[in-house]
Amino acid sequence: MKKLNPVITTCPVCEHDLHITHLECEHCNTKISGEFNFSKFNYLDQETLLFIELFVKNRGNIKAVEKEMNVSYPTVKRHLEEAIVALGYKVDEDDEVEEEDIVELKKSKLAEAQSRIAEAKAKKLEILDKIKGGQLKVEDAIEQIKKLKENK
């Protein structure tokens, strides 16, 4: 089977939607004429299609998608909402937030905070090591630690 180009759904000249006017079987040469429409999925960009594929593959399990994409829970939720909108549906902002969403968001924020704390601690230990090694004066170390606290 020869490699086929992906279907384009927008006119490259005027940017209006294209429609299908005929289909052809390359095996028996049967040709069908008429007007046919594309699926909603044909109008999605590649990134959104890949996200939907990944979401379905993981049976809608946001934790699994989060792990496979190596992104935070809020990022997966944002991608999901963007996909919903791209398919022509409205994301109701007034929807009740599920308890699971709140727990995941709190876990994500906690993980981010723990990461920042660990990073600051590592920088402080590095400063102390420089003092021990004679590479840094105590006064300079104090200034660097003050700057770390200001950047929180």
Q: What does this 3D model show about the protein?
A:
The chain is mainly alpha-helical and 152 residues long. Helix content is 53%, strand content 7%. It has 5 helices and 2 strands, in the order ββααααα. A hairpin with a 6-residue loop joins strand 1 (20-24) and strand 2. Helix 1 (46-57) packs across helix 3, helix 2 (62-69) packs across helix 3 (73-86) and helix 4 runs antiparallel to helix 5 (138-150). It is elongated.
Residues in β-strands, percent: 5-15%
Low-confidence parts: none
Could you say which overall geometry the principal axes of the C-alpha atoms support? elongated
List the total number of helices.
5
Class inferred from helices and paired strands: mainly alpha
Mean pLDDT: 85
Number of strands: 2
The largest β sheet comes out as: 2 strands, antiparallel
* Element-level helix/strand string: EEHHHHH
The largest beta-sheet arranges its strands as 1-2
Percent helix: 40-55%
The N- and C-terminal alpha carbons lie at a distance of 58 Å
Radius of gyration: 26 Å
Outline the secondary-structure elements:
Elements: E1 20-24, E2 31-36, H1 46-57, H2 62-69, H3 73-86, H4 99-132, H5 138-150
Antiparallel strand pairs: 1-2
Helix pairs in contact: 1-3, 2-3, 4-5
Could you name the key traits of this structure?
152 residues; mainly alpha; two-stranded antiparallel ribbon; 53% helix; elongated
